[in-house]
Design goal:
Blueprint (H helix, E strand, L loop, with lengths): L7 H13 L2 H8 L3 H15 L4 E4 L2 E4 L1 H29 L4 E7 L7 H11 L4 E7 L1 H10 L4 E7 L7 E16 L10 H4 L3 E4 L6 H9 L10 E3 L3 H8 L4 E6 H9 L3 E3 L7 E10 L6 H13 L5
Parallel strand pairs: 3-4, 3-5, 7-8, 7-9
Antiparallel strand pairs: 1-2, 5-11, 6-9, 6-10, 6-11
Helix pairs in contact: 1-2, 1-3, 1-4, 2-3, 5-11
Family: Belongs to the LysR transcriptional regulatory family.
GO molecular function, one term: DNA-binding transcription factor activity
Organism: Caballeronia hypogeia
């Protein structure tokens, strides 16, 4: 018996429900009625023979079947939207546009030279370059706002949805203000009671702490502040009694200026990967492939 293929509108409905949390909000986002949303999901559930949503007074949530389908549905919806934009650009004679997200830490590394080389070779391609927080990088890749991102990725980050092309690596180190009493402490369990400053997302902090501990099981520090602003981070890190986390290339400059000193502890070092990130399902255009090549060459990792 011939099986009917999934309809794009049904996948769009599933994505809208996941993003907006209720059938009514999804209907508003899609500019359709709520009964139309309900009908679309019921048809999809009948087609697949599984329950995709669980309904409650607080709204709806996806079942494990719904979550599995959502990953594919997002990719399909995003690619269709990209195709529509590309066709519109072709019809209107508009220039091709690449949207690039750059993390705060990565913005000064390789990017200036890469952008200059790209502009010289492909001056007619429009570039939108956005400096972003780590969470914005992931959201932008997921919803198709960014074609590609250049970012530092911690070992603790979950990147299964994306392809990460490594173009560099940095070691994360612990440091305290120069001359601080904590500089004499070498045992991580004694440092856990200090005030900590972290340079990535709060969600990734527990995994980072486990990496530092290695085989030991130590309680999470009670006082942890997160700051992703490079300028403010340096100022907060200089407060007495603060243990801060630094990529080695930034800590070297702070040491040279006499503001910070690294800790010689029994903690295990954690690595940051400087990588090019894009969705696994993305079909690379010629312009995007050349941009990737420019970044790799500027970072000294030419293919």
């Amino acid at each position: 018996m011939e099986r009917k293929s999934l309809k794009t509108a049904q996948l769009q409905t599933l994505v809208a429900i996941a993003e907006h949390g209720t059938l009514m909000a999804a209907a508003d986002a899609l500019s359709v009625s709520q009964p139309a949303v309900t009908k679309s999901i019921k048809e999809l559930e009948t087609r697949l023979g599984v329950q995709l949503l669980e309904r409650s007074g607080a709204g709806v949530r996806l079942t494990r079947y719904g979550e599995a389908l959502l990953r594919r549905a997002r990719a399909v919806v995003t690619e269709i939207a990209s195709a529509e934009r590309e066709l519109e650009e072709m019809k209107s004679g508009a220039q091709k546009t690449l949207s690039i997200g750059v993390s705060l830490l990565a913005s000064s590394i390789a990017m200036p030279d890469a952008l200059r080389a790209f502009r010289e070779r492909l001056p007619d391609v429009r570039l939108n370059v956005y400096e972003c927080l780590p969470a914005q990088i992931i959201d932008g890749l997921r919803d198709g706002s960014f074609d590609l991102c250049v970012a530092f990725v911690a070992d603790s980050d979950i990147t299964a949805e994306y392809r990460v092309v490594q173009i560099g690596e940095s070691q994360q180190m612990l440091a305290v203000p120069s001359g601080d009493a904590l500089a004499r402490e070498t045992r991580l369990e004694r440092l856990s009671g200090a005030r900590w400053l972290y340079n990535h997302t709060r969600d990734s902090w527990p995994a980072f702490w486990r990496e530092l501990c290695g085989d030991r099981i130590l309680p999470l520090p009670a006082h942890v502040n997160v700051c992703t602003s490079q300028r403010l981070y340096g100022q907060l890190a200089q407060q007495p009694g603060t243990v801060s986390v630094w990529p080695d290339f930034l800590l070297d400059e702070e040491r040279r200026l006499g503001r910070m000193q690294p800790l010689d502890t029994d903690a295990l070092p954690s690595n940051l990967t400087l990588g090019l990130m894009y969705r696994r399902d993305l079909v690379l255009s010629a312009a995007l492939e050349y941009f990737i090549d420019c970044v790799r060459r500027a970072s000294g990792h030419a293919a």
